[in-house]
């Protein structure tokens, strides 16, 4: 239950009453009217922009509308004060009894609290990771994997029908290089000595395992044959082996895709031809000569006719070639076909999670998606910036096994799954992230993983203590939802409840913005509020959770503690993190 949506409905009803009184014209568009917490807590509990957004269509100054609206809002149940701020924001204070009564909603819903129906079952495809199957996943892949997985969970929480997808880039030149590199390791496995890995091949030791597996399966079958005979089967074997390792690494991070789509299968099944024909039928294909790229000297540029897509009609900077000089498809043509395929599967909302090095590709892909779907599909690309791996401030050395980078498995082995998942969401995806092994595992309030988990563990500790002291009490959330909350009268307690009731709004706004990092931010705020209340109890015995001789207040505070643990667990579930029962 989103209390701010409830008050938004009440504000709209008040505006309709104001229109009926002649205070504003009837029939105004109220779609831009919002209700949310004010930026400054001192201004009240709830704020609306109604007077601001209706001023121009109503032909009245914002403050005049705000002053006319205020009496209607003062008449609302539970509203104790209405004030007007700045050019016309209307702020409301709500009775503490209202917030206390809503605590039962949290307890009744359990970890399901915050679930929404705003998605209305809309189908969304979230494609993430999609690493080339040429090596193990590295730390940067971990960030995209977690962002994509948490975003998918967030959208599901908000009522969307989500498909988690991995696109296997198995049709490019890089997989031929993989096959040749594997063949070298295969020959090594068969006992051949003196083999050196040439420049341009994949030197990582992980391919030794692939070569040995191929030798174990096929013996010397491929050793002496010409490349044209072994390339395709060795390539297929190597891709399968690499994808098995990738899936294993993802599973260890608790990431499981619904669908793995093959680029090669897409091409072989004629999907690129179908997409090209769709664009051609729409009049969006032509043969032309592109201008030389910026910075190219005239003698470096060879003008030649190319088969081009009219990308500039859909917001791109230049039109884009779909065929190479030899008549084969460009990578871009394959990607258009892939997004066309996703759209035709019934997903009008497409989200791709990419590495920052693909930033220059966003405009053309957005243009192509718009064109191929006739404007019916929307593509949102989330670019994940770099992850700097540190140990006490010093860069972490590359993995010997990978040869050129630190693997996801290395990071997991060092700090554990939950730490990796949480830390990857502590910054916006488009901001660089520093991941210091020492800092992300230290037990201090400066470590957000520990700080949030410690709050949950403290909640569970209080409830275990209460169960030990009052073995005859029913401390289930269902029983606690029925107790009296009147004793929760301190400012800290009411503020804590109000913050918990902001969780459904956080879920909805984060889902609409496609920003899962907001969940991590919210949980840090909630943990800070809970720890603050805990610390007050150390100095003031009347604010402790278990009060000897006052069973009613103790039950109310145990309900509060249970609610905090449930909301933290609800947020951690979206992040894919297991709530801590205790910390050692």
TrEMBL record:
Keywords: Aminoacyl-tRNA synthetase, ATP-binding, Cytoplasm, Ligase, Membrane, Nucleotide-binding, Protein biosynthesis, Transmembrane, Transmembrane helix. GO terms for molecular function: arginine-tRNA ligase activity; ATP binding. The chain crosses the membrane at residues 558-578. It is found in: Cytoplasm. GO terms for cellular component: cytoplasm. Its EC number is 6.1.1.19. Residues 452-583 form the DALR anticodon binding domain. It catalyses: tRNA(Arg) + L-arginine + ATP = L-arginyl-tRNA(Arg) + AMP + diphosphate. Its main location: cytoplasm. Residues 5-94 form the Arginyl tRNA synthetase N-terminal domain. Belongs to the class-I aminoacyl-tRNA synthetase family. HAMAP family: Arg_tRNA_synth. Monomer. This is Arginine--tRNA ligase.
